[in-house]
Hints:
By secondary structure, the protein is mainly α. The chain has helices at residues 28-50, 61-80, 88-103, 116-146, 155-190, 200-232, and strands at 11-19, 22-27. The chain is globular.
Amino acid sequence: xxxxxxxxxxxxxxxxxxxxxEEFAITDTIVSTWxxxxxxxxxxxxxxxxxKNYEKVPKGFQNFIEIIVSGMNxxxxxxxxxxxxxxxxxxxxxxxxxxxxxxxxxxxxxxPTADVATTLAMAIITFGMIQFFGMKEKGLFGYIKSFFxxxxxxxxxxxxxxxxxxxxxxxxxxxxxxxGTIILALYYTLIPWAVLKVGIPVLLHGYLDVFAGILQAFxxxxxxxxxxxxxxxx
Length: 234
């Protein structure tokens, strides 16, 4: 039974080279990520071809796409302000990628977001955006000055809080998705009665994969938008 409880990220193929003495390999997470990327690219092509003849009065599939796009634009506008509406394409694509990654466990893939390397990579991108757009909006001196507000004595806490943002973002998403994966694997492995593997797992998948997957994708994107918008505020 213990042999079945394996939650590690398995190596699919080792690459025949090293960088600074470190080996590189293709893992389950990388394969899942490539598959999801391929699906997203295919969907983008389908959308592009489907609305090639743009209609001023949308209907059918074009109407569906416009609802999604306008909804994301509205969400970014309400969260970050009308002047930051240009962030909508990035955060929209980020939400779709995280959502599909979270739900990929339903089709027996290892969710990329169940790997801390994936979630921290996205969190570090958010961290970089916070620093870049904060300095762009306030200037280098003004951005550094913000760490001494409201009083200079809070500088160490402000720095710690800034560095904690990507860590909390990455580990929150990673912990929730990996936790759901582990719970489902434990259920299937430890429950000996086949009858309990028919109905109950639907509820577990519905909550741990679907509900939690959608919720965690939304939380990650909302927090990212809030952090970036906060760094740009005067």
